[in-house]
Structure formats: structure tokens, C-alpha cells
Structure prediction request, 434 residues.
Amino acid sequence: MDKFFKITERGSTVRTEIEAGITTFMTMAYILAINPMILSQAGMDFGKVFAATAIVSAIATLFMGLVANLPFALSSGMGLNAFFAYTVCISMGYPWQWALSAIFVEGIIFLLMTFCNIREAIVNSIPPCLKKAISAGLGLFIAYIGLKNAGVIIASDGTLTELNSGWVTGSAGVAMLGLAISAVLFARNVKGALLIGIIVTTVIGIPFGVTQYAGGSFLPTSPYFCEFAFKDIFSSGKSAFDFMTVVLTFLFVDMFDTVGTFIACAGKSGLINEDGSIPNCKQGLLADAIGTTAGSVFGTSTVTTFVESASGVAAGGRTGLTSVTAAVLFLMSLFLEPLFGSIPGAASAQALILVGAMMVSSVIEIDFSEPCDYIPAFLTMIFMICASSVSDGIMFGVLSYVIMNYATGRRDRVPTAILIVALLFVAKIAVGML
Prediction:
């Protein structure tokens, strides 16, 4: 096992890897409850989507661990599932089978792009300043998500957020107490601090009514299988155009969410090579593409590499054994739906906040004496948070980097692959204006 996963070579231990895998799973276990909840709004069966989410997460994460040997976990992406349900199905009026067809096509395109090394080239060509900004920005973003999920900060006037006046009570109060416990454990170098924090926070939430038993059957439900509607795609010109637009939207968001997560987590785990490349990047991206394709077959939305993987990395995960551990737990969750559904948002929220704090450290490696570096880096970070989108943050970072370097006569600093990515972003903007 040590030789296969290169555990000692990467400065880790079997125990650390298993603890990291459990931590990663625990911080993203919420997706097993939230994803079916969201997709059920589109008319899908909650139990079938739960089963699909668990099965596909296990398949993609297992591939990530055994083939790519990277400590990242995958599941149905947040944001993309909301786009599936609320935009494609509810707003645009298409059935969920039509939306699954779009995801299947997206997955096939991803597979082709991965085999042709297109996605790997994009990841490896991103300038160092943007890689550092993506890591730091992602840290701020997931901490922001944690604060919102716990109710510590709330919406104000529909646009801004502010501190919840009741942040010391209820879910917010439990999350902040859990954060304090986890932070102290980290400061005292306690192994498995995040995992212990999640468990303790879950227990603390019981007397406050924050942790509640979800209930339900312990017998797994069969997922959907190949519920596509390709015959309806070209039923009209509008349907065909909408289909292409939806496919491109899924494609862009998924691709750059994954790129951002890969770079951020690889940087935090010290896996980025001296030339800026990520080891086994192609195999890792292939896991994402396989997950998305399999997800459409079994009946769930686009699968992507989760930012919560950073929690396992922060807990010491450095190899694919972390991913394999998380994959096994996803399979086990098929029989433990009521228990995993009982983990409160406050428990995972405090872990995300702490992980975000650790990831921000990469910002000190950005050259703040070079405007063509730090301004694009800043825009990357600020738009990730304000637009609530990793891909949008990368878009503004890449576009500003290309524009500023071209405008100052420093085209040699712009790799061809990044220029192509910038043009693709321009095309995305143009399509969105139609």
C-alpha cells in the first residue's frame, strides 16, 4: 500500500491518509442531503437522486485515488445542481431528462478534451500569480460559504451580507463554538482536528436542536438509469439552441471550478511540481469527466472536484488513499442515509471556515510590486467571493492578466494556452448576451 500510493515518499502515513479521507467525506457529506433536495424541485425522486449521488461520488473519487493518486474527492457540484433545477427545468421549462441529456453530452466533451490533453494544458499554463490567487481566493470563498451556511452572516437588502444579530445562538452559535474548538485543536497540533471538530460540533448541536435525526430507511434505493430525452432536443430551433447554450454553461462552469480546485488543493498539499504542473493531472481530470458522464447515466447533476477536498489536505492527506477512504464512505452512506443526513450545516461550516483560513496563506507569495500580477490576482479573489463563483473569479483574473500584459507590451508573459482560454471566456460572455 505504501509503495502503490507513495505514502512515505509524500511525507504521510496510512493513519493520516485515512483520517484525512474521513475528514474530507464528513465536510462534504451535506451534498448527499442537499443535492437530492435541490433536484427534487425539478421533479426527480429524492431517494433515487440520493443513491445516484452516493454511487457516482464513489466511482469518481475511487478513480481519483487509484488512478490519479491525488487526495481529492468528487461529487455533484453545488451551483451546477441549482442551475440544473431552477434554471433549466423550472425557468426554461425543460424536463429533467432533457437536462440530464445535456450533462451527458458535456461529459463526453470533457472526456475528449481530457484525452487530447486540452484541460491539462489549461491547468499547467495558468501563471503563478493566478495559481496563488486561486488558492487564496478559494480559501476565502469556502470560508464565506461556511459563514453563510451556518447563518453567522445573512443577506442584507438582497445584495450585501451582514453579521447576523443572533450569531451567538442556534446554528450560528454552535458553528462558532465548533470553530473555536477546532482552532484550539489545530493550534495544539492535535491529529484529526477537523474530524474531531465536526463530531464534537454535531454532538453539541443535539441539545440546541441544531442536530436532528433525519429519519428514513436504511435500505438503499435504486438510482435512475439512462433517463435521457435526446429525441426532444431538436424538436424545435429554440430547443436546439437552448441545448447548446446549456451544454456550454455546464462545460465552462465545471471546467474552471475543477481547475481552480485542483490548483488550490495541489498547492496546499505541496504537490505542484517546480515547473508549475500537477502530477497525474490528466488522470485527475479524467476522474472528473468520468464522474460527470456516469452521473448523467445514473441521474444526478454535473460531478466536479469538491473544494472541501481542502479539508482533507489540511488534515494531512497527500495521496490517493485519502480519496479511496472517502469513496468507501460514500458507498457505505447508501445504507446510512438517515445518519449522514443528520450532520448539521453548523458542523461542516466550522470546518470550511478553518480550512479557508489555512488556504489564504498562499497570498503572501504573490509579487505585490508587479501590477500585472497583483491586480489580476486581486480580481480573481474578489470576484470568487462577490460573484459566488470560482469560475467567474478565474475568468476576471485571466482576462485582466491578458489585457494588462498585452497593453504594457509584455506579450511574452502570456502563454498561448492562456490567450486561448481568454478568448473562450470572451465567447462565453458573448453567448450570455444573446
Remarks:
- The CA atoms of residues 61 and 73 lie 5 Å apart.
- Residues 2-211+230-433 form one domain.
